[in-house]
Write a structure and sequence with these properties.
Layout (H helix, E strand, L loop, with lengths): L1 H9 L26 E10 L5 E10 L4 E11 L4 E13 L9 E11 L5 E13 L2 E13 L9 E10 L5 E9 L4 E10 L7 E10 L7 E10 L1
Antiparallel strand pairs: 1-2, 1-12, 2-3, 3-4, 4-5, 5-6, 6-7, 7-8, 8-9, 9-10, 10-11, 11-12
């Protein structure tokens, strides 16, 4: 009953498509640091199906308002793991931090399948607001697939949100929600920096649980970054 209720509420703002893992990725903050180089790896794993998706990328803060990152994307679905797609991601910080009641950014992505004429673009706002030691972040992305090998090319919507508590610089507990047309997931997450004294390293790990029957029952999400 509670799963159906939450799913119905979320469906008002989320319309997308995909597999049982679709829509679960990361929650983006709106901030950019000029000159920063970032090495990143992240993934989502279906704990029941064994399917997973992994991204490996390198990014650079071109200006104080523009960060660009390139990814290779590999997936395991019904077979072997294959690197199938490449992606260019651009994040724009739209105002100085603290200038308005909340901080705003914009994400623009372009993804291409290597073996098919199949493209995907995403664009949408990133919002973050801090209330004392509690930080709320929301992303609303509009997605469109196109190309000769794409069957459906309607615009779709993906939503994600994160609420975290700044317990310390080392670790921040929180909760995340991800939604697309078919999938809805909610669960706890831990975020941290400088683990075991390793400077410039950030990490995230979360366990998402399905809110509807179309979503994998449990999904493990992880992310590792090295910034310099």
């Amino acid at each position: 009953m509670w799963k159906k209720s939450l799913s119905g509420l979320a469906a008002v703002t989320t319309l997308a498509s995909g597999t049982a893992l679709a829509g679960v990725d990361k929650v983006y903050d709106p901030y950019v640091e000029q000159g920063e180089v970032e090495l990143e790896a992240r993934g989502v794993h279906g704990l029941d199906s064994g399917e997973y998706k992994t991204k490996v990328g390198i990014g650079y803060g071109v200006t104080s308002r523009w960060f660009v990152e390139g990814y290779l994307i590999g997936e395991k679905e019904d077979g072997d793991f294959e690197v199938e797609e490449g992606e260019i991601e651009n994040k724009f910080q739209l105002a100085e931090q603290g200038q308005y009641w909340a901080d705003f950014g914009l994400l623009v992505e372009l993804e291409k399948a290597f073996d098919e004429d199949a493209w995907e673009t995403k664009v949408g706002p990133l919002v973050q607001k801090q209330f004392g030691d509690v930080v709320a972040t929301g992303n609303l992305l509009f997605e469109k697939k196109f190309g000769d090998d794409v069957a459906e090319s309607d615009w779709e919507t993906l939503g994600s949100a994160q609420l975290k508590y700044r317990l310390s610089e080392m670790i921040e507990p929180g909760i995340e929600y991800y939604g697309s047309e078919d999938t809805q997931a909610l669960g706890p997450v831990l975020l941290g920096a400088n683990p075991f004294g390793m400077e410039h390293v950030k990490w995230e790990a979360g366990l998402l649980f399905a809110l509807n029957d179309e979503t994998e029952d449990s999904i493990f999400r992880w992310q590792l970054e090295y910034e310099f």
